[in-house]
Amino acid sequence: TMHGLNKHKTELMVISIMLLPLIMADQYSVIKHTSVHNADLRVTDVTNVTELQKLCNGLVHCAGFLNDGTLLYTTTDKYKDDGIDLYVRSTVPPPLPSQSPIWPQPQKFISANTTVVVAKKGPFFVGIGKQSQILTEALKRYEGIIFLGPTTIDPISNMIYDTDSTINSCTVDVLTSDENLQLGFDESYTITIPDGGAAKIVANTVYGALRGLESFAQLIEYDWSANFYISNVPITVQDHPRYHHRGLLIDTSRHYLPPSMIKKAIDGMAYNKYNTLHWHIVDDQSYPYVSSTYPQLSEKGAYNNKHGIFSPEDVQSIIQYGKFRGIRVMPEYDMPAHTGSWFKGLPQLQGRGNCGFDPTLDTTYQIIDKFFGEISHVFSENYTHLGGDELNFNCWDTPPIHLWMKDHGIDTIAELENYFEQKVIALAVKHGMKVMVWQELFNNGVQLPKDTVVEVWKGLDWNTLRLVVQAGYKTVMSGFWYLDNLKDKWTNFYQFDIDSAGFTQHEQSLVMGGEACMWGESVDQFNWEQRVWPRASAIAEVMWSNSQWPKVVNTVTMNRLHKFKCMLNRRGVLVEPVYKGLFCNPL
After folding, report:
1. How far apart are CA 499 and CA 563, in angstroms?
2. pLDDT over 90 for what percent of the chain?
3. Residue 279's closest CA among 341, 342, 330, 335?
4. What is the per-residue pLDDT across 238-260, written as a single tens digit (0 to 9) for each?
5. Taking phi first (over 0 means left), then psi (-120 to 50 degrees means alpha), and beta for anything else, what does residue 135 get?
6. Residue 440 and residue 470: Cα distance in Å, rounded?
7. What does the DSSP assignment read for 169-180?
């Protein structure tokens, strides 16, 4: 697989600075042969000055740009001649907004300057409105997360009660009984924290309540006298995600990840407000999924058919675990390529080809038909990812296949691919499945149903992304968020933004979101978490927070992410350091 590479690898060191004098509204003055130091920056891959000007004009806080593709949120008067031109926006932008302690940054955060003690006398969270098992378990879970406290003291027995400024409970009001966990489900919520009395979380759905509980939990701090408190109240949070699809891809074929590890990944996703687990469950290397229709696939294709598999009970447990945390579980069964492990149990699928499924045999489609009938009932998620990437056309370059093509009026391998994919997608639709595919199917002209989601993964392929939405398809971007590219740090991932493509409002509405992809070549259960977090946390904020929120790598952002990293550590998530010289207090 290819990686979305950031060609800019500059370490950003940021300090307080002053804006350049600016002239003439909506114009740009040019300072030739300039480099800017000590500025809040966002790196893009765009170098065309007209496109950079459009990008800057569309960002409230943008102060200008360099013609190497760097957007500036603040500039300085310290220059040196190195051949780079500085374009300074004539309209003075408003200062960067103050940042909340919540990660990802909420859409709206209003605070004051009072500190209140949080007192737990009995159950702290009280569910009102629509009740559900998801909500009941979440209230209990977050009560345990928040009041875990330092392990060296007893936070409950030492807690201060009944001060003038005490929050003694939090009501959670879910307005509807909607538990539909499909693409576009409602995750909005509001939080109100007064300077005493009861806090309140209100959400349309239980999934919005889950996101609100996570944000509320991040606002509570504790001191070493075992006092829990919230700073800067009264606080109002109004929040919803920027994108409907915020995915994290896991790969359980190249290295097996046990169900307990996948559930731990789901926990981390929920803390970061991801909402879709893209489960790349099988590939060439192994077939760990236990099929009730074709049990020989895992019996012969898994690394170990007793300890390296996902039983039907395992799969249902993972799906249910995700649902109770607001995480869709979307499986991927990649075909016709990346299917080597299928052939160990069903060699007839390879048929007369060199590799990949044989598209010329009726038995291929009969097997796929029965298999889709199975998985359409196993997974509650409407969308199934059918892959379609990296097909080597030499796989089907054999005399028997060419003879079949001639007899059926198919002239090229590309046309044969289209034939295969249309038959496979028709079978998926027959079983009530919606389809997500990798971009090759679109690039190669395969006719796709209009509700198909096309995932663009080949680096910074803005052209394909634009063509996909112009053709009326929904899309998900992952090309610049490949976590298996271990050279890229969180700072690189944080500065990429899908909006950089400069879409119209209608085109932007077809962008469902993005995915962080942790392919499994270099990770297993013993290092997966450390390779994913906090780099995927940076991506989570880009996908959740408002597009106008400047994704600037500065000391404020580092400190926010570091604080979140320490919080995740206390919850048992293994997270790599954010930056050198930062320290988490003992647990």
Report:
1. 28
2. 71
3. 330
4. 999 999 999 999 999 999 999 99
5. alpha
6. 16
7. EEEEEE------
Residues 6+ apart with CB under 8 A from 429: 435, 449
CA dihedral (485, 486, 492, 494) positive or negative: positive
pLDDT tier, 2 (very low <50, low <70, confident <90, very high otherwise): very low
CB atoms within 10 A of CB 304: 11
C-alpha to C-alpha distance for 495 and 53, rounded to whole angstroms:
17
Res. 212: pLDDT tops 90: yes
8 A C-beta contact, residue 204 and residue 190: no
Tens digit of each residue's pLDDT (9 = 90 or more) over 362-386: 999 999 999 999 999 999 999 999 9
Residue identified by tokens 């489609």 is 365
Flag whether pLDDT at 472 surpasses 80: yes
- For residues 513, 328, 385, 367, the Cα torsion angle rounded to the nearest 10 degrees is -170
Distances (CA, A) of 429 to 154, 330, 434, 445: 56, 16, 6, 19
Token representation of residue 566: 């320490």
HEC assignment per residue over 346-383: CHHHCCCCCCCCCCCCHHHHHHHHHHHHHHHHHCCCCE
How large is the greatest C-alpha to C-alpha distance in the chain, in angstroms?
86
Give the pLDDT confidence of 57-80 residue by residue, as tens digits. 878 788 888 888 888 887 554 444
Parallel, antiparallel or unpaired: strands 228-233 and 114-118 = antiparallel
Q: Which two tokens stand for residue 316?
A: 């249902």
Among residues 383, 484, 489, 491, the alpha carbon closest in space to that of 431 is found at: 383
Mean pLDDT of 156-185: 81
Distance between alpha carbon 446 and the CA centroid of its chain, in Å? 27
CA dihedral sign of residues 85, 90, 91, 96: positive
Residue 521 DSSP code? G
pLDDT of 15 above 50: no
Query: Is 381 designated active site?
Result: no
pLDDT of amino acid 14: 28
Given the residues 390, 417, 440, 576, the one annotated as active site: 390
pLDDT of residue 511: 95
The helix-helix angle for 312-323 and 259-271 (nearest 10°) equals 10
User: CA 587 → CA 158, 172, 222, 326, 353, distances in Å?
Assistant: 17, 28, 12, 28, 57
Residue 294 neighbours by CB distance under 10 Å: 19
- What pLDDT was estimated at residue 94? 78
Mean pLDDT within 428-449: 96
d(CA 488, CA 216): 31
Examine the pLDDT at 23 and tell me if it is beyond 50.
Answer: no
Q: What length is written for the chain?
A: 587
Query: Does residue 347 have a cis peptide bond before it, meaning omega lies within 30 degrees of 0?
Result: no
Average pLDDT of the residues in 312-332: 98
Cβ atoms within 10 Å of 459's Cβ, excluding its own: 15
